[in-house]
Each structure stands twice: as structure tokens, then as C-alpha cells.
Amino acid sequence: MMNIAIVGAGLMGRLLALSLLRGEWLGSKQSEKVSITLFDKDNKLACNSAAYAAAGLLTPLGESLHCEPNIVTMGFESLSLWPALLDSLDEYTFFQQAGAIMVSHEQDKGDYQRFVRHLGNNYPEHEQYVLNRTQLLELEPEIGRSFNQGLYLPQEGQLGNRRLLIALRKQLEKEGEYCNGVNSLNWLSECQVVAIDNAGLSSKVSYQQCGINCSQSFDLVIDCRGTGASSKNSHSACAPLNDLRSVRGELFQLIAPEVNISRPIRLMHPRYQLYIAPKQKGFYVVGATEIESDDDAPMTVRSAMELLSAAYSVHPGFAEANIRQHVSQCRPVFSDNQPKITRKGSLIQVNGLFRHGFLIAPVVLKQVLTLVNNQINKSNDNLPYSDYLDTEQEQEEVI
């Protein structure tokens, strides 16, 4: 029996736990059973995770002006992988690939034109259409009332991030209960990991649950704690990542029965790109603030005014919307804004997905699972996507 710990039960932690529980991507040569322990400092609703405070946008071109080309490439690859992942879940999840629209007000027209040129110069192989008012009205009638032109990106998509977290929770509970005859899962929620002792061939995890101190040794530990793994938020004995910082994001969830928008809308803004993501049944997510801060306090007045006034400028129907929720959360970011997978002995750390968690998660998942496969089956398979997702490994530990 191989014992594997996953520390952190946000998006990556849940995807990894389910994939390992199922034995997916471990190959037909899996030699032994796997026991998975999922350590979760939150409760199973994941309301304190970065994945909860997201819009679930799968818009690689929309992000391209503010990220490196490898993120865009991973985003398009992930778009092709998400449907199969979602179809494997019993619970209904929302997925849409009907494109996205970029618009701007006249005073921000220069930023809009710069974005159009950027896409034309750097990503001409991907479909993109400049729309006049008539064409915009045909595609999104209620947006065309406010704007004379827009850029339509038909390959962009989105998913329901909170529905997905719920669906993954239920799937893990269901399949973990029956243990599928091969592998097993133990989900320790509201459990704080206080130390990770990486001893090379095995690692010991020390944790506190219900006021009781415990420890357990594992053949492999996968650390997916996000900002919890930073040197500020993690004890020196808990394998902190010194180069990891937090970037604060804020969003509103609105109920707007007088608004009918069918696909994500991005608005060029003097400080950031604002997005409006429709979530069915009159629900919309409005967000995109990006603040260099690790403050997890409630939303500021300035952010609230900017987000809501910008949404109202896109569609006057948002004036009568009900504010269902406002959320602030910190995202994990390295100094180069790149995701990183590192392996040291029996410890794998997955972090720095920044604002691209849902955009690139399937690609990151496949690479981590290949690392696990190499560990379990004593193999040396090539890592997928290594051209644009680099994994750091201690050379002497590569099998």
C-alpha cells in the first residue's frame, strides 16, 4: 500500500485526490493500492479557497495581454481537456464555450485598439472578429445598445467554479466511501498542517484537528496549499515557499433579472480588465480587481464603486440587480507570475497558479499525475507539456 498525502483541498487538491482515487493516468501497470489522505484547513464547502472567489473563466486570449504566451498555450490545451473531466462527475456542472466579447468606452478606445493589435500580431492563428454595432447587436443585443464596436473571440469559454467545487466534493465523498475496491480516501477537513518533514524516501506530516496533535508518515506528499504555503503564512517547519506572494482579488455575485447576457464580457478599464460572467438563472459574477496585497479583509469602498459602476456602464439593467455576495480572496503568485511544480524527494509542491487556476488546471493536473506515476511505478515517463510547464526536480531523486 502506498500512502499519499495531499495538503490543500482547493481546486488542484480535489482534482488530484479524485484522479488518484480512480487510478487515472497512473497506467495499467499500477503495482499497488494507494491510500490518499486529503488535509483541508477549510470545511468541505471551500469558501476560503481562491477557487471559490473566482469566475471560472476559460479565456486564454482575454488573459494574453497580462500573461506569458505559455499560459495562453496551456489555456487552449485545458479547454480541450475540461469537457472529459466534467463529464466524469455525477453532479451537473456548468460549462460553456460560446466565446467572449471585449468592449470599451470611447475614452478607453486606445487600450482596446492596443489589445486588438496585440492579438492580431501574436495570435493570428486563433479566430477573432472585430464587430461593428450591427454585428454586436446580433450577437449580444443588450450589449450592442451601449457600444459601437467589440471584439468577438469565439474559442473562449467558462465553467461554474462553485458548482465544480461542489461536484468534486460529492464525487470524492461517493467514490471514497466505496473505496472502489482498489484505492481509498480519508478527507480530514478543518485540519491544520503544522509541519512537513521531507526525509527523502518518505515525509512526515504533523497536524492539528479538534485540538489534538497528530502525525503520520507518507510515501509521497503533494502540497497544494496556495497562499498557505508562503513563508508569511506557513511555519518554517512546514516547507514554505519563500518566493511566493499574495495578490488580492475581489468580485461581486449579482442577481440581475433585467440583464440578458449569454457569454463573458470584458471591459477595458484604466486600471484593469473588468469581466462580467453570466452564470445562468440571472446570476452574474463581476470582478477583476488585482491588488498587490495579502490583506484578506472585506472589499474596499473604492473597489466596490469601481466594479459596480463599470458593470452599470456596460448594461443599465445592473442598476436594479441584487447584490448576493461580495468576496475578497488572495491568489498565490511567484515573482515571475509562472506556475511551478517542484519535487524534492518525497515532496511535490504545486503552486503559483495566480488568476489562471481554472484556465490551466487540467494541464497542471496531468503533469503532476505523471510525476506520481513515476513514483508509484518506479518509471521515468516523460512529463507532458514540458515545453511550457517546467517542473523542477532534484536530479538524484529522479527515478
Describe the protein's topology:
Blueprint: E1 2-7, H1 11-22, E2 34-39, E3 57-58, H2 60-63, H3 69-87, E4 95-96, E5 100-103, H4 109-122, E6 129-132, H5 133-139, H6 141-144, E7 149-153, E8 157-159, H7 161-178, E9 184-188, E10 192-198, E11 203-209, E12 212-218, E13 220-223, E14 244-255, E15 265-267, E16 274-278, E17 283-291, H8 301-314, E18 322-334, E19 340-344, E20 347-351, H9 357-377, E21 391-393
Parallel strand pairs: 1-2, 1-13, 2-9, 5-15, 13-20, 19-21
Antiparallel strand pairs: 3-8, 4-8, 5-7, 6-7, 10-11, 11-12, 14-17, 14-18, 15-16, 16-17, 19-20
Helix pairs in contact: 1-7, 1-9, 3-9
Question: Which descriptors apply to this entry?
Answer:
seven-stranded mixed beta sheet, globular
Label the overall shape: globular
Structural class: alpha/beta
Average pLDDT rating = 92
Number of helices: 9
The order of strands across the largest sheet is 6-7-5-15-16-17-14-18
Largest sheet: 8 strands, mixed
